[in-house]
Amino acid sequence: MKRKLIILTDPGQDQAAALLMILGAPQAFEVLGLVATAGNIDLGYTVKNCLKVLELADRADVPVYAGCPQPMTRGLVTAEHVHGPTGLDGPILPEPRATPASAHGVDFIIDTLRQAEPGTVTICSLSPLTNLAMALVKAPDIAARISEIVAMAGAYFEVGNITPSAEFNVYVDPEAARIVLDAGIPTILLPLDVTHQMLSTRSRLNAMRGIGNRCGVATAEMLEFSEAFDLNKYGWDGAPLHGPCVPAFMLEPDIFSGRQINVSVETRGQHTQGMTVADWWGITDLPKNAFWVRHGDADRYYGLLNRCLANLP
Length: 313
Ligand code: BDR
What we know:
The chain is an alpha/beta fold. The protein is 36% helix and 17% strand. Beta-D-ribofuranose binds next to helix 1 and helix 6.
């Protein structure tokens, strides 16, 4: 049976790759809608970037809902230094013909979950968790209706990317991450610990470009743009590829390994705001609220991503 997905996203090149991967696996996923998040760049751009990715894949039928324009309690921190001035720089993507849906993203999440059979909708989160947390605050009954949350968020063994201690998606809205992790919903986290193993080496990007279709070529070109920052920062053979870890986990979980642990979010530390404190060694008795993915097989990951991209125009 297909998984029904609500996708939270602020694309971003790695998330564009994740969205295309999902659209390239129609046998596995039914996308109910995208909720554009303020994150990598402000909301106006993330809405447009969602529409651009859908247009690229000829999937303007998938609705895009604008979420909240800022995190729950803080000003927005953005990442144009990685993703470029539009948040999705690199190749010129087709101008979207579709326009955003009229409902607010938070209401779309609530209404969709209330209308669906309980346990049939997965939340696929590629971005800060603002809109899901807002939905849980507004309508706590939806928690019991979510099948599971699969989220790219957090870091522990690899520590941070936006500060020395925090991963970007959690740092942008730590209060939201805490609300989501405390909601008692089955949750799988794909943190930097695993995304930093998924390096976009030259041969992997060449294989992607070599698919030869417009989505494969555009994805390779997008990633070539965004990897420049990380290549310079880390000095590795390729850049980490974050977002597609989420669909890859849903499609082929045995690519990955991890364990069920407690994850707490630091919201107030002077140097650790937004840190995900992962109790990997079971030192506390705190509830084991998330499956923390620690390792993954990069060759299988890129192979799967490219097979999905090959199904697109
Ligand atoms: C996350 O931060 C964003 O900049 C990326 O798109 C990804 O979602 C990685 O920390």
